[in-house]
Amino acid sequence: xxxxxxxxxxxxxxxxxxxxxxxxxxxxxxxxxxxxxxxxxxxxxxxxxxxxxxxxxxxxxxxxxxxxxxxxxxxxxxxxxxxxxxxxxxxxxxxxxxxxxxxxxxxxxxxxxxxxxxxxxxxxxxxxxxxxxxxxxxxxxxxxxxxxxxxxxxxxxxxxxxxxxxxxxxxxxxxxxxxxxxxxxxxxxxxxxxxxxxxxxxxxxxxxxxxxxxxxxxxxxxxxxxxxxxxxxxxxxxxxxxxxxxxxxxxxxxxxxxxxxxxxxxxxxxxxxxxxxxxxxxxxxxxxxxxxxxxxxxxxxxxxxxxxxxxxxxxxxxxxxxxxxxxxxxxxxxxxxxxxxxxxxxxxxxxxxxxxxxxxxxxxxxxxxxxxxxxxxxxxxxxxxxxxxxxxxxxxxxxxxxxxxxxxxxxxxxxxxxxxxxxxxxxxxxxxxxxxxxxxxxxxxxxxxxxxxxxxxxxxxxxxxxxxxxxxxxxxxxxxxxxxxxxxxxxxxxxxxxxxxxxxxxxxxxxxxxxxxxxxxxxxxxxxxxxxxxxxxxxxxxxxxxxxxxxxxxxxxxxxxxxxxxxxxxxxxxxxxx
Amino acid sequence: xxxxxxxxxxxxxxxxxxxxxxxxxxxxxxxxxxxxxxxxxxxxxxxxxxxxxxxxxxxxxxxxxxxxxxxxxxxxxxxxxxxxxxxxxxxxxxxxxxxxxxxxxxxxxxxxxxxxxxxxxxxxxxxxxxxxxxxxxxxxxxxxxxxxxxxxxxxxxxxxxxxxxxxxxxxxxxxxxxxxxxxxxxxxxxxxxxxxxxxxxxxxxxxxxxxxxxxxxxxxxxxxxxxxxxxxxxxxxxxxxxxxxxxxxxxxxxxxxxxxxxxxxxxxxxxxxxxxxxxxxxxxxxxxxxxxxxxxxxxxxxxxxxxxxxxxxxxxxxxxxxxxxxxxxxxxxxxxxxxxxxxxxxxxxxxxxxxxxxxxxxxxxxxxxxxxxxxxxxxxxxxxxxxxxxxxxxxxxxxxxxxxxxxxxxxxxxxxxxxxxxxxxxxxxxxxxxxxxxxxxxxxxxxxxxxxxxxxxxxxxxxxxxxxxxxxxxxxxxxxxxxxxxxxxxxxxxxxxxxxxxxxxxxxxxxxxxxxxxxxxxxxxxxxxxxxxxxxxxxxxxxxxxxxxxxxxxxxxxxxxxxxxxxxxxxxxxxxxx
Lengths: 578, 578
Known about the structure:
Two copies of one chain form a homodimer. By secondary structure, chain A is an alpha+beta fold. Chain A contains 19 helices and eleven strands.
């Protein structure tokens, strides 16, 4: 069975030595109490909880899966309900929710660090609180005070859980095709009619109520995405005194059988005139959805990071233990895989944590200029975090199996589950191809290209100012940045006239961008590690930085050349020839 | 559900237009009857059989899996036994086995083309005849005439099936650690004692008998691989008249639960004084095993090719059908994935088929010089076919899921099964890292580097002599070959003094080598397609060749740079720092 030990040393190194997250408590008044000590304490508590309560349910949850009964109810795997209640009792569901709505009011960054660990221990479980957080955010951002008062506190405490009802069979990536109908009622509510698919946590008995944040089209609204509105559709109606009333007309019609995340239920939901309450203004639903979607994309990135860590630490342990007849870590190709896994996982952790920090600054920094800049970073980083950590989880899940050899293919070892659980991460909340299109089509042009210009300025400065002892990574980083800047300019210049040409290499571009960012992260980690007394730790970090610099960072050049090569005549090729 | 249509147009194009396999019937007397027409007829028959009988059992076999009963017997999925008997009745099990042992005596190449289709339709099923063929080859190459007469005919007809009993818990990649003991008996037979794991088709009721080709150590034999011998251990003893006698003392103790290929049973086998018959000479077992192992590696390559084709053709169909709201093939990133899948699959097909042709020439060509050269090619190509087609199957299995979006993660669509079924291909018959070590450590040095020198001479000649209209691929091919030659020389010069340094990039080197080979294949396909009248076919081939030339072939340079960068200090890093 795969085992999990929270990588506290790594986590604290990134938070405190690399990213100086302690500054949060100094610069953001709302987080004055979130000192490094407070964060460390919460992280320790969560680490123990994940190791002792969630990780042991990972393999059993995979084996057992979820079951829908003929009456439409759903059973989750054994132990999940108790674990969720204990998780909620620890306050983990609402770590970052405002205290006025019964959250702990602690930094978003802290909630994401906890999420990384939860997603290593049991990524299927993580979806129950994860979607609850997404539902909270969406309601918090757009709903009336009355709706907030009614729904938010119990979504913070985990007494209720949340979902997002977005996808329909004909409307996956194309939300303009959403057909679910909202019919206004005399009392100001709406009757919602339609069918939704791929609804994570759509039905279960782990919590007293389920709040469905639902995308639908009001009768008479325009076609396309500008005719969509968002609604709260509770599983059980909530009475004026806050107690639960009648069952609403929303049902789980079926559940999906999936490649992985078996412990997470994925529902087909039917709404047969279910009562819903409008969130925000009519026909502005797509905007309300995107508030949540952006944070959800970051969340999925953390799911990927958790799985990258799980793959890496198990592969390291196995490679140090297995003899064939030498300990296999001493075979060059195995050592290469281990270093690659560490280089990607630890580099991605800095990207993910830094993005979370920017969310905190964007939401709460007292200086509007800082907030604006932080928001630029969040916009730019979101597709990078989502795609890098999820492609990384699949790559490393596959690589961990290679390290295990034939044993990796056997379910009992718990390693193949990582690959199965991770593949969905590349698909939901926008496939990684859609992330790449978001990067190329939107993020490079945002505010006249401000975010990406700042990116190059900052990274070039860091590479140029690095002390000579870090030239081993600063120099290849400069070369990578030069290639990436050139590809970026090419896209910016080409996109308007020939969007397909500019987009053809979007995934290559996204990967090149992420590798340059990880190169910057490894420069910073090398610098921070050099200041440490622990020679064993320092040697590991410097070697891994060197591996990244020599084996991974040089890929940026080839990727950028491919980007600038464009689509050639490929888009014009008649489909009969394919 | 994934569907499968045998790509007959592609298969015949590669066989007849690109590789001129019709020459087999002219140059090899034994294959005089194997005219292009004969081959085409057999391929058509097999195509229909796979489409109608095997492909429909692929999803159901995955869902049902195999079951071991308390008495040690094993049930295979519904329909597998009937399908196997029909498969055998068609003569498919022994296509290439000599007619003196009841085979059809047809080219190895033909048997592999059939195998590609079988492995697209149902790769789990393919293992039953696949291992039977391996067992046949091993006995045919090394056993006495008496043993051959007793065992080979029924392995050709599929009345009996075969296995390879190699791996033990402590002896995976390290066969020197094999402990299974052979104790000589007065009658010339041996009693075999020990335990084997990961035994494909180790127990089932699909055939009357199972012949276990078993690696064991005679009492008193030297330690290490030079003390290993090979034995035939039948499930049922065979009487002098050829009828079956007593049950031998070999039992299936357990079966594995695996990520994929659920329809193929993987057994833990106990030998409790089972009767075995020595094959070949004492202590030369490892040589006998390698006869079979090399062909088995090519077989696994064809399994990968079959899965690549299955992933590709389903992704193409979906991309041409699914609207979001445009048909998704018109999204640049989707089209990029489709072209990449086709470029890899069709390029790998030429590599695989050409390797099979070389096997035919190596075994049967009347001219010893041709046989020697062909044998060089087989040696060089074996790790390339095995790794390229199996890494390709996993990559394309994953990419097909991306093309399907969230639907790809749902079992019902049959797409995620491709990734699950394919991952084992990168592990068994030597992990792909072991293939890369074989390439770097053995194949580059074989006969003084003769095979690889011939490779560069042939490919450089083809690139140099290509007409100007093919410069779009001939030029990048030349550049790739220059980089690969330089990396090859570096390995050849470095290996003896610093083997770990030379080996560190073995997987990068293997990939670079394969990409150069596929570049050569695409040059040849472009040339052959240009001679065709069918403009739709020609346009597709030329566009895909161009995609390969501009998007994939340029990766060779970066990979080779990484190879020549060596291991740095990575092998010296103390494991405590990992």
